[in-house]
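Materials and Methods. Structural model of ATP-binding cassette subfamily B protein. The 595-residue sequence of ATP-binding cassette subfamily B protein from Rudaeicoccus suwonensis was retrieved and submitted for structure prediction as follows.
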Amino acid sequence: MRYNAQSIGLILRTSWRIQRSATIVAFFETFGRALEYLMPLFVGFAVTGVVNHQAAYLVGGLCGVGASQGLAPLLSIVGVQSRIGLNERVGQFFDAQIGRLSGSTATLNHLHDPQYQDQMHTLRERMGALGMAYNSLVNAANQLVTPIITIVVAASVDWRLLLLLVVAVPATFTARANIAWEKQAEDDSAEAGRRSKHLGDLTLEPVPASELRVFGARRLVRNLLGIHSLEWRKPFTRAEIRGSFMATVVTVVYVGASIGILAWLLHDALAGRLSAGRFATAVLVVGQLRDAVSSLQSSTQNLAQMLRTAGRYRWLVDYAEGVAADHAGEGAPPATLRHGIRLEGVTFRYPGSEQDALRGLDLDLPAGAVVAVVGENGAGKSTLIGLLTGMFDIADGRVLVDGVDLRAMSLAAWRERCAGAFQDHLRLELTAGEAIGVGDLREGRIPGSPALEGALADAAAGDVMRALPTGFATQLGPSWPGGVDLSGGQWQRLAIARAMLRASPLLLVLDEPTSALDPATEHALFDRYAAAAKTTARAGGVTIIVTHRFSTVASADLVVVLADGRVAEQGTHAELMAAGGAYAQLYGLQAAGYR
Ligand SMILES: Nc1ncnc2c1ncn2[C@@H]1O[C@H](COP(=O)(O)OP(=O)(O)OP(=O)(O)O)[C@@H](O)[C@H]1O
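The predicted structure was written out as tokens:
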């Protein structure tokens, strides 16, 4: 209850902040409704006035009828008009907030968390409910005023009319059951909904769409899409069927009871025990009571849906605040590294996963060193990079930068001192200059051409740029007007240029940086990497190269072999070869392959 009241408070505050006048004027409709539902009383007065020849009753009643017929619609129109723009702006506000909350969360655990993804999916699905939040609130007020006025009128006419309320009580239980069923349907369908979306996206994106064609898997994906879409909608259909069955039962009971009570009242009217005025009011009130109950029912459901969506939004806010509180460290990273980066007993498991990706990992990355990290698929190399760049919360252990826990440091400040080219690099469909320039936005803008040219040279990507029709100004991405597409290797070289833009990072990450490159470019790049690593080393920075190509490893100062989330071996290339362990075997295998 308290939680719901806070959600209503949030919506009222938001609307108030967006447009005060419209927030107030929207409630004119509520007054209009109240006036409208007082009409049976006014009619009753007028009939009494006519029957008993009482002018005051007649005039008062007619004025009331006039007001409820003339003024009420006017108030309603003004109220509705004021809501039109407001709804959109409230919706846009929440839309922007949701994007901001997800995008600015300090770490990435949430993006790997199925529960978070389900909440986010349902929230996006129900965005309309939040966008129309203020609308639902005003509707609820409008629909609440209806039963209140009608009950007051009914009680003033004849107590027997209140018996209809007893009959309407089951309707409130039905409303509650409907709300619970809807909530259950939302929760039950979230995962299937996400699956359907994923499968639907596969058919829309060029890369998966072409692979699906090659494998002739389109029909399979279509069938799966059909199955999961059905799974997705099934809980809602079930809830709707249950709801409409209950609504039918309630209506039949109510109509039966209404007929009985009206017959009873008519009997008294004919016997002279009930005045004509009261009987006329009673006839009108019976119809209104039914409307009042059903409008109360539907508004409760709409309100409940809006409150549920607001609850999911607040869950998201709490989640983001929780992450922010866990990363409240404000310490600045050192200007230069003196000792290096150290991982102590680091254990990490992805949310929802059954096993640790890294287990009690101890590792020293000395200042100024070039460290090569190798290991089989799934050994934990990319996870290690994620932890070093502060992307994940660690369950156990710590990452120390010159002896200072990363948690005590401002993550944003630490990341400003990191640079990297990543395995799954971004294909930023901006202009070529922007796609590289985002690598160093510390001045809040894209660096000028000299810096971009330097980064291109460091990434051996000058020829990629020269081939573009308008150089840095060229729009990338074929789906945009005048946009050009690049090959996988060309995209990767721009990603490397982005990594090279940032001067003297304390951590330079090159995660499978040459996986898409031809041998000549790869060779050219490794000379540049050596140069970049030397520049990085001048500030004591650590360069980490994650690679499956052992030929690129030999010149590293330190080679770390990961296996099963732990350090299996470490040392220089010569030391590891001499040791004759896993590294020596893998190196031998690759070397033999080239012979
Ligand atoms: N998002 C995720 N959710 C759950 N488990 C994950 C996730 N990402 C990776 N893992 C698991 O964590 C472990 C380490 O994965 P990681 O990507 O770090 O390996 P890697 O050494 O970089 O592999 P590769 O050489 O294939 O890139 C693997 O067992 C993997 O299945």
